UniProtKB/TrEMBL annotation:
Signal peptide: none
Domain Enoyl reductase (ER): 13-341
Record-linked InterPro entries: ADH-like_C, ADH-like_N, ADH_Zn_CS, CAD-like, ER, GroES-like_sf, NAD(P)-bd_dom_sf
Native organism: Pseudomonas denitrificans
Keywords tagged on the record: Metal-binding, Oxidoreductase, Zinc
Name of this protein: NAD(P)-dependent alcohol dehydrogenase
Source species, domain of life: Bacteria
Family the UniProt entry places it in: Belongs to the zinc-containing alcohol dehydrogenase family.
Pfam families reported for this sequence: ADH_N (PF08240), ADH_zinc_N (PF00107)
Cofactor: Zn(2+)
Stored PANTHER family: ALDEHYDE REDUCTASE (PTHR42683)
Single GO MF descriptor: zinc ion binding
Amino acid sequence: MKTLGYAAQNPQDPLGPFTFERRSLRDNDVAMDVLYCGVCHSDLHQARNDWGFSRYPMVPGHEIVGRVTAVGPKVTRYKVGDAVAVGCMVDSCQECDQCRKGEEQLCRQGNTQTYNGVDRVTREATQGGYSKQLVVREEFVLRVPDGLDLSKAAPLLCAGITTYSPLRTWNVGPGSRVGVVGLGGLGHMAVKLAIGLGATVTVLSRSADKRSDAMELGADALLVSSDAQAMKAAANSFDLIIDTVPVKHDLKPYMPLLDIDGTLVMVGQVGPIDEISSIPLLLGRRRIAGSPIGGIAETQEMLDFCGKKNILPECEMIRMDEINQAYERMERSDVRYRFVIDLATLS
Ligand SMILES: [Zn+2]
Ligand SMILES: [Zn+2]
């Protein structure tokens, strides 16, 4: 099947229209029309080869909401017309201990990324959601719960699950004290999801400018990290800090904020971190951890949770041909809080 998308042809040039083939349906495949696709920071990084493993041409996009148009003969869970979603991965070995536990994101053989990955059958490059059609095996297709606004749900598939998974891993619930560093695509979802789970949520920011934004999202407090006195007063007052900042930054100021056995989990930055003393880690039995997305079962749980609580990202809808300006604005953090492409604007 021929489909139209938007691709990066190399690290320098803007993305532009690109026609390519989607595979014909395998027995367990679901074909869908893509309705909406969120724009993740990693799309920009991968389009520009910031991480050094990009292959071109590349159609980015891994926050995908669509509608089923056809299913293979062995598909049992989806039918034509269903509202479905696809996130950051489209396949895994399905056999290792992690896959068997439903932690496909941690597959021992590596999961297959939705784009800039390699198809496990044909060894062809996978291409993402900045496109009109998508074909994905049934096991990696998610159901969008009834009532969830399809035009806003897409960012849940990366920003949502990336922040929901650590909240669940560290058992956040009523009474938990959660801090969120960085108030972008991931950070604003961390705030909404932690509140939804019943936690007390504080946004940590370098300046007080973000106070009204944090309050609008429902946070209980804003802690200004450049205010030494306020930081001292907040010592030992968090169980979990979710650090969503996408660039290298100093973690030292956050460590004393964690209570005993508290964890700072990094979900944004990919790469080396600044030197840090083990003293606060040893003395308070504190941890620094990382967390990727979640497994398929947990992603479905997150979608169902958002459906039940009507938790949705704050989105700015764009046309497909506005993607290059959107990338420029993202680099300036000029978006509240996630761009979503309306694929109806691509023809
Ligand atoms: Zn992403
Ligand atoms: Zn596996």
